[in-house]
Amino acid sequence: MKKTLILTMACLCLLAWSLIPAGASAQEFKGKVGGGPTGGTFNTFANAMAVYVPKNLENVKLSAIGSGGSVENLKRVSSGESDFGLCYAVDSALGWKGKLPKDETKYDGQRAMGFLYGAPAQLVVRADSPFKSAKDLIGKRVAVGNAGSGAAASAERFFRHLGVWDNFDPQFLGYSAAASAFKDGKIDAFWVLVGYPNRSIIEASVQVDIRLIEVGEDAQASGFYDEFAYIPMEIPAGTYGDGMPACATFQDATILCVNQNVPAEVVHGIMKALWSPAGMEAMVAAKKTFDTMNLENNFLGASVPLHPGAVKFWEDMGISVPDKLK
Fold first, then answer.
1. What distance in Å separates the CA atoms of residue 64 and residue 50, rounded to the nearest whole number?
2. Is the pLDDT of residue 144 over 50?
């Protein structure tokens, strides 16, 4: 009798297992992806990821949610309010150490997955304005990004370093709102930290002749790079119109981050989907900016430890992960 019962239970278990679709786990994972303000590149990626991944992993369902941007995302991801989010590497590092502006909380629940794209600082002014340096904006109205965004955090970091932050009028506007205010003459300049060409800058340039201030020169001369891990770079000539010269600036690395408690197999599966040839092609189709999301750039710029699922993925790809990121 006992032997018959054991055999019956074993058969039932095998039958139940056989009903689970191939490639799916018994438990469905539902997650939130933190994007950014309307009109921003963060939002574009979060939406593309939320659409693509579930089509290729039937046990994973994702929804993209708006946010203020990088700083808000790292806080939400660290707490588990969001499962995934786009964060700038400098913000992540400062949050990890408890050194965000006016916030000593250590946001150490975040983990890195991989590099997406570089986000250069772009400071837009009217072509006929007298401003040659960021220091010339003292007393002026400057849109710096949504409150809680990586753009706003980087702007405060940069302008405070130059001694300008307390001497001008920062406007906390998202990129689209900033472009509209700029066209209407309500602000004198606006700052974005995002891949180029940026839609909001293009939108502003349709009605107003613009140019970019070379913030890279201000950064170099003031020792900004000695204090923060931004990377000097150049926006190519002609990016926002024929005849516009190249612009010296600096960039941050945009990293896809994840909460530490998301199962390793889920993270690994999502990365296999996103960093596959088809996945990378789908992201580039959403926006050309994402063509730097590839195996060669892997976790470039990552400033916090990788998630165990990400470590396994990169090592499966034959890419060594340094001990400090494990």
1. 6
2. yes
Tell the residue number behind the tokens 């939002």, with chain if given: 43
Distance in angstroms (rounded) separating the CA atoms of residues 121 and 193: 4
Handedness of CA 276, 279, 284, 285 (dihedral sign): positive
What residues have CB less than 8 Å from 198, skipping those under 6 apart? 41, 122, 175, 192
Judge whether 29-116+253-325 and 120-252 match in fold: yes
What CATH code would you report for 120-252? Answer: 3.40.190.10
Span 251-274, average pLDDT: 98
User: Cα dist. 248→124, 231, 277, 278, 326 in Å?
Assistant: 13, 11, 33, 34, 34
Query: How far apart, in Å, are the Cα atoms of 249 and each of 216, 275, 302?
Result: 4, 29, 20
Average pLDDT over residues 26-31: 87
Q: Please give the span between the terminal C-alpha atoms of the chain, in angstroms, as a whole number.
A: 52
User: What is the greatest pairwise CA distance in the chain?
Assistant: 94
Taking the domains of the chain in order of start, what are their residue ranges?
29-116+253-325, 120-252
282 vs 286: CA distance, rounded Å: 6
CA 26/CA 199 separation, integer angstroms? 42
User: 0.85 exceeded by the pTM?
Assistant: no
Q: Give the separation between CA 33 and CA 318, rounded to whole angstroms.
A: 27
Rounded distance between C-alpha atoms, residue 123 and residue 121, angstroms: 7
Task: Identify the CATH number of the domain defined by range 29-116+253-325.
Answer: 3.40.190.10
